[in-house]
Amino acid sequence: MDHSYAVLGLGRFGRTVAKALFEAGKDVMIVDKDEEIISECSSSATYAIVADLSDEREIKQIGLESADVVLIGMGQDIASSILCTILAKEAGVKRVIAKVGSERMGDILLRVGCDRVIFPEKETGRRTAHSLIGTGFMDYYSISDKTCMIKMTPKKEWIGKTVRQLDLRNTYHLNIAAVAKGEDFDHLVDPEMVMTPETVLLVICEKKEISRFR
What we know:
Elements: E1 4-8, H1 12-23, E2 27-32, H2 35-41, E3 47-50, H3 56-60, E4 69-72, H4 78-90, E5 95-99, H5 103-111, E6 116-118, H6 120-132, E7 139-142, E8 147-152, H7 163-166, H8 168-171, E9 174-181, E10 184-186, E11 201-206
Parallel strand pairs: 1-2, 1-4, 2-3, 4-5, 5-6
Antiparallel strand pairs: 7-8, 8-11, 9-10, 9-11
């Protein structure tokens, strides 16, 4: 059975994960207190909700019970992250994953019921390890036990072809979440964009598929 996802907090992490999951055909609910951010991201989600994630009453009204997986992206807001974790578990959510800003925050969230925490410094170490063992990727980010994000340059045989021509979703079972633009990423990927040796992609895929395009 396919999973449905709720992404709470739309910083760079939350936006990127939500968009990639939605483009992979997943059922995705996004929630943030900033109405402008929700408006910008609504086209990359099944449901887009404006709610204060520090308010218990508002959290209970967004329908977390419909999600199989909740991703909490408020790495610097421990109070809201704790509240969202507790309420998600009370709603019967099977898996709660949270981005945390410190090991202490991670310990606290695990104690109140979070199933997994993502601590940037540790994730950097894991990504470095992957680069050292020769994956050929520029960066690697684990989203869950089965899913990952990869920062990479195009394979040699992709050069000179457009995104539409490559049809990467069907050929390699991956989705392009964004294309690097300097230090930032452009989430609006033009299907007519031609791959060059300088192109830098952020893609999402299942970990079991990595060997297909390594």
